[in-house]
Amino acid sequence: MHKNQGPVYYNDYLKLDSFLDCQQPLSRKHADPENPEAHDETLFIVVHQAYELWFKQILHDLNSVMAIFSKPQVADNEFGFIIQRLDRITKIQEMLLSYLGILETMTPMDFLEFRSLLVPASGFQSTQFREIEIKLGLNTNNRESIDREFFMGRLTEKDRDKLAALENIPSLLKLVEAWLERMPFTATNNFNFWEEYKKTITHILKGDADTIHANMANLSEADKKMQLENLRMTQENFDSLFNTEEHHKIVEAGKRKLSQKAMLNALFIALYRDEPMLAMPYQMFSAMMDIDENFTTWRYRHALLAQRMLGSKIGTGGSSGHQYLKKAADNNRVFMDLFNLSTFLVPRSQLPAIPSEVRQKLNFNA
Amino acid sequence: MHKNQGPVYYNDYLKLDSFLDCQQPLSRKHADPENPEAHDETLFIVVHQAYELWFKQILHDLNSVMAIFSKPQVADNEFGFIIQRLDRITKIQEMLLSYLGILETMTPMDFLEFRSLLVPASGFQSTQFREIEIKLGLNTNNRESIDREFFMGRLTEKDRDKLAALENIPSLLKLVEAWLERMPFTATNNFNFWEEYKKTITHILKGDADTIHANMANLSEADKKMQLENLRMTQENFDSLFNTEEHHKIVEAGKRKLSQKAMLNALFIALYRDEPMLAMPYQMFSAMMDIDENFTTWRYRHALLAQRMLGSKIGTGGSSGHQYLKKAADNNRVFMDLFNLSTFLVPRSQLPAIPSEVRQKLNFNA
Amino acid sequence: MHKNQGPVYYNDYLKLDSFLDCQQPLSRKHADPENPEAHDETLFIVVHQAYELWFKQILHDLNSVMAIFSKPQVADNEFGFIIQRLDRITKIQEMLLSYLGILETMTPMDFLEFRSLLVPASGFQSTQFREIEIKLGLNTNNRESIDREFFMGRLTEKDRDKLAALENIPSLLKLVEAWLERMPFTATNNFNFWEEYKKTITHILKGDADTIHANMANLSEADKKMQLENLRMTQENFDSLFNTEEHHKIVEAGKRKLSQKAMLNALFIALYRDEPMLAMPYQMFSAMMDIDENFTTWRYRHALLAQRMLGSKIGTGGSSGHQYLKKAADNNRVFMDLFNLSTFLVPRSQLPAIPSEVRQKLNFNA
Amino acid sequence: MHKNQGPVYYNDYLKLDSFLDCQQPLSRKHADPENPEAHDETLFIVVHQAYELWFKQILHDLNSVMAIFSKPQVADNEFGFIIQRLDRITKIQEMLLSYLGILETMTPMDFLEFRSLLVPASGFQSTQFREIEIKLGLNTNNRESIDREFFMGRLTEKDRDKLAALENIPSLLKLVEAWLERMPFTATNNFNFWEEYKKTITHILKGDADTIHANMANLSEADKKMQLENLRMTQENFDSLFNTEEHHKIVEAGKRKLSQKAMLNALFIALYRDEPMLAMPYQMFSAMMDIDENFTTWRYRHALLAQRMLGSKIGTGGSSGHQYLKKAADNNRVFMDLFNLSTFLVPRSQLPAIPSEVRQKLNFNA
Are the C-beta atoms of residues A296 and A332 closer than 8 Å to each other? Predict the structure, then answer.
């Protein structure tokens, strides 16, 4: 236990003198009798600072989870911390969503009072938010080129360099991929797991096809076409799972990020998450999907707010904010592959049995 | 006051015997030793019934607001109720968003246990949700044809007819448009309000252009092009506001819904919302934008959930749910014109003064 | 409009270099090989700083509302701002409630890692929170003596003096009381409003009594006694409303804070909130009750968190946190009188009619 | 997998015809020209029905968790389901809290329009809510006698009998207590765990005492007294943990519910939750505390709402609602013992080491 180092005062511990001196509205600094301080600029500053404060916390937890996965071996007793910290990130994100509703108590007219003073500053310049994105697993190759130019062009050289450097270290996505690739269970000598599994999915897919055909009579031409196309895609998806070459093509096309091996082991976890050893890794997957969903939703809601504040005006940073943001919401997904695992699931009752030698390893000694 | 009609028992008042008998999982009905009841089907039913219960409440409040606007004249003392009920709808919507998080406690594997039993039922068949959409102001002409076919094809003839009939009565959007068109203030004889306003925006737009040109040096070619295009669009937007023919074209193209007259009077409210008589109408606009934002966000989050549950599988109703839903989120906006009002706002300090004869009418007698 | 003062960079505008340098865990400063940094101390600091940041915002909005009420006359067009800013405070409070859930992702064991370093710092030393309480209307006379000693004893002299000085300026409660006392409508010469009202409540109270007596047969002795006592209290409450001396006694006993005149005019607003001029004042009452409820709920939830973290251990500041906090939740209500207005309401259908000369004044000119 | 049983229609699957026919406002039934339907009675019904619907879901999940614990042995692969379902209950509770905010959009005046029609129905008559309370672990012996009379007196004989019968089956609290008592780890022959632990806490308690005495100079007499009393209580608490007789007295006094053996094993889990086998049981404790906190907060918020609606009037069921509810919030805690575990925790760095033979059992085979 740390030794107590002398009496601590709340105000000093939190460095409130400096901390609460950082809210300096430009409309106060440049106020004159004709142009008084804009009351709501304080809200604007507070909301953005509060975001940055919580981004720092998210990075603190994210870094610690990445540190655990950076070691050659993840100890079983570290999964508790991984879950706790990823769950915390999701709770923080949910709370951050409500900041948008608070910011919307400022009407567009109130915003206009100080908007011109901010040019060309823009929320796109938040390097902490970029750092989170990059560390989760969004990198240059995932961002479309226009996007990349758009952001990078707005940063100082120092900030740009800092972010570029981050893209060279393995992201959480890459670290978890490596961990998944190391997972031993599906590779056991006499465990022909994937063969059993393939039989099952062949059966399921046939069921889906039957369903569609049974409903054909009631469908419009357009609808019919859509459904058949869908079925074809699903079959292709399944094929790709076991076809190394196909899988590679999908990765090249930017539609999948995990390696084939990682993907299959992730699927194993999703299918057998009831086994004690896979329970917490599955909780981790859930938390990762939550994180993805929350940032995606936030970007989308942010786009709606930008439109509400500006209509079709340009943003302070020169961006047509809301259209950009909506596109970003869809494109900047990190853990899409985990969402897409559902494509490959089968009902518990049809799950191939795990051989007892493997099963034993997934359980406790006691 | 209503006369008391004899003792009332909680259970009877709420008709709980019938109400709590409506949750009948199909996997319970068809259970056998090999296929036991799927535990989470109850959650699936409860979530959907809870949605329908609240949709009924939303319709109850929406109908009452529409009834107020259906009268030839909206009394001033009815605005309190309008605000109260629209605000209630937004609070209900915010709560309904959290249902998605509750539904996600069911994992995709849990869903698979009973999914096949539901075919081809689909949430798209919720006639109450469609009724809300239509009554707010989404009608056939607003929906793209594929969308229309898609939904309608899934309904019974009775339900289809019911919804079709609703499209023939004036929606909230239409009723509010008519109310806005009746607003007298900007039409006063010697109130050349719009001329004054035009001078102001010409000045503002020049400022925006200067801003862009000042930043040109730092921008990439792509960015520069985007911004200039944006500025051009903004100017066109302003022009369209006063050019009846241009305005009509925009409406025809489906990019605006309100008539020119209604649009201008809505703008007047947004600009002068500090005047006592315009304060509550402006609160109404805010509530309407909140309602739009909340449904839009809900559709978007719903799309993410669908993907999480199904991956790229087809939905139980035969839809490729998540892609469809994402598109719907963007297309099915009702009060877009209110969001776009922000395009036309000017800072308070540059607002043209309202002539005292008009101003007096916007105030209390006391 | 403020003139643009040269390009602004996001990072500089928000003073992020200083701002993000204020999170300095003591367990990092005093770390050694045996006692590494406690991972969750950062969360502890971030949560508390985020509270302080939002407290600053709450004070910013609260001060502006108090400034409006400090003028001899509140202009009708200022009510929009009053509502907007009080509503914003309630939205901020609702969000702040979720901080407790985030803090609870830190387990009691995690807290123990750095708890000893904080002694005797305590959240009770937050002067901004005290400032909010005092400005809303909690002052020395409202706090019980033990409470006062408890807090004040933990502050530096400077902080103590600062808070003491705040108690000498009129709180929001006092300012609104004065505004209510100035309200002219119920004092009109030939408007015997309160006489009409008294007739109505006599009728209502009789109904309540009948209800109780009709149910007597089914009640236990204890229950019967409780209800009759309740009825007696309700009658006393009504009497006190018009009996200056009785009212004074209740205020002296600390059970009511508003003057008799203010109380009656507040009741008038609650009863006739449909009248255009009273609609926004009633919205203000609702916001004030929300603010009270939110802080009360927050104190209560805070007490549960303290118990969860510490069990029956003492707090870092030497307080038996959770028991204290629970008591504080109940005692530190500010706008209790607004809640208690409901005691005196009557159904709309039984409301005395307002004379047309008064009614006209409550409406718009148009 | 269940076999598809023929096409299913959304409306039929959810039994919407019956379900949406259960909202029948009494003020509609008894409406006449003078007393029209009260608009907000629908909201009142919808909120209460929505509560009952979710209570049914909570019971569904609670029952399934109780079924798992009712077996002689809880399988390791069932903990995933336990956590999933308890977490779901907490998410449902958090959402249910927001119903109070929705109900508050009905003003006290709106409530008065139909309140008299409901007498003497009361939310206290919700048998599902009572069922949840009893199944969690609140039984007659935990409720104070007035409380018991108060509720039971309001129920029909049938409902009363149903609830009384439930009190005879083991609650979740009792089932988990039995499971904890069966836990083998701390009972290992040569594992003198508790002796090691006692040494540690003696050391810690001395530290707490030193802290208090070091701060004595700055404290008021009242404060000093409170802190010393607190310290004494803490010491007593620790003593009671190992003193069977003392422990028994505390249970008799209603201040503890778990047996001594269960309490010690629960403490073991809290202290060593990093060990893989204890990680999910600890998550279960967290979920149980969340459930307790959420119901407690809900009761408290409910009390504030009752006061806001009724002031000091009696409730429709004849109760002085808000005072009763506040008291209930504090008294009706179920998992208090888990909160109080924190009293007995020690920092990780001071934890006694677990012997390797025990530790191995807490880990996976792999």
Answer: yes
Question: Minimal Cα–Cα distance from B186 to chain D, Å?
Answer: 34
Higher pLDDT, D150 or A8: A8
Residue D57 predicted with pLDDT over 90: yes
**Alpha carbon separation from C102 to B12, C98, C292, D25, D84 (Å, rounded):** 41, 7, 23, 41, 19
> Residue B2: what residue type?
H
List the single residue in D57, D101, D126 with the smallest CB-CB distance to B46: D57
**C26 lies in a domain?**
yes
Residue A239 amino acid letter: D
- Give A9→chain B minimum CA distance, Å: 39
Domain count, chain C: 1
Give every CB contact of residue A213 below 8 A, 6+ residues apart in sequence.
none
Q: Would residue C215 count as lying in a domain?
A: no
β-pair partners for C7: none
Best residue of C34, C103, C112, C285 to probe chain D, by most D CBs closer than 10 Å: C112
Q: What region does D258 belong to: left with phi over 0, alpha with psi -120 to 50, or beta?
A: beta
Contacts of range B57-60, beta carbons closer than 8 Å, 24 or more positions apart: B57/B92, B57/D42, B57/D43, B57/D46, B58/B89, B58/B92, B58/B93, B58/B132, B59/B128, B59/B131, B59/B132, B59/B135, B60/D39, B60/D42, B60/D43
Does a structural domain hold residue A266? yes
| Mean pLDDT of all residues in A135-139 | 89
Model pLDDT for residues B103-126, shown as the tens digit of each residue: 999 999 999 999 989 877 788 789
**D102, D290, D308: best to mutate for the C interface, most C CBs within 10 A:** D308
CA A282 to CA A276: how far, in whole Å? Answer: 10
Q: Chains near D, with 3+ CB pairs < 8 A?
A: A, B, C
C360/B364 Cβ within 8 A: no
What CATH number is associated with residue A138?
A: 1.20.58.480
Mean pLDDT over D35-57 rounds to: 97
> What is the interface pTM, i.e. ipTM, of the complex?
0.91
Evaluate whether residue A32 is within a structural domain.
no
The answer to whether the CB atoms of A364 and D276 lie below 8 A apart is: yes
- Of C263, C86, D188, D56, which is closest to residue B14 (Cα–Cα)? D56
**What is the rounded CA–CA span in Å between residue A21 and residue A144?**
39
pLDDT above 50 (res B331): yes
Cβ of residue B156 closer than 8 Å to a chain A Cβ: no
Can you give the three-state secondary structure of B231-276, one letter per residue? HHHHHHHHHHHHCHHHHHHHHHCCCCCCCHHHHHHHHHHHHCCCCH
Q: What are phi and psi of D325, to 5 degrees?
A: -65, -40
Per-residue confidence (pLDDT) for residue D144, from 0 to 100: 52
Interval D294-311 mean pLDDT: 92
pLDDT at D241: 87
User: What is the residue range of D269's domain?
Assistant: 37-114+122-189+256-339
Task: Give yes or no for a contact between A267 and B259, defined as CB atoms under 8 angstroms apart.
Answer: no
**Contacts of residue B7 in chain C, CB cutoff 8 Å?**
215
Residue D365 Cα distances to C198, D79, D277, D357, angstroms: 80, 18, 11, 13
Interval C53-80 mean pLDDT:
96
Residues linked to residue D32 through DSSP beta bridges, in sequence order:
D35
pLDDT of residue C78: 94
Q: Cα–Cα distance between C208 and A323 in angstroms, integer?
A: 60
The pLDDT of residue A145: 47
Residue B252 burial (C-beta neighbours within 10 Å; 0-12, 13-18, 19+): exposed
- Please choose, from the candidates B144, B177, B145, B163, the residue with its C-alpha nearest in 3D space to the C-alpha of residue B335: B177
What mean pLDDT is predicted for residues C242-269? 91
Contacts of C211 in chain D (CB under 8 A): 116, 119-120, 318
Question: What mean pLDDT is predicted for residues D179-186?
Answer: 87
Q: Measured between CB atoms, which of D79, D211, D365 is closest to A279?
A: D79
Write out pLDDT tens, residues A283-316. Answer: 999 999 999 999 999 999 999 999 999 887 655 5
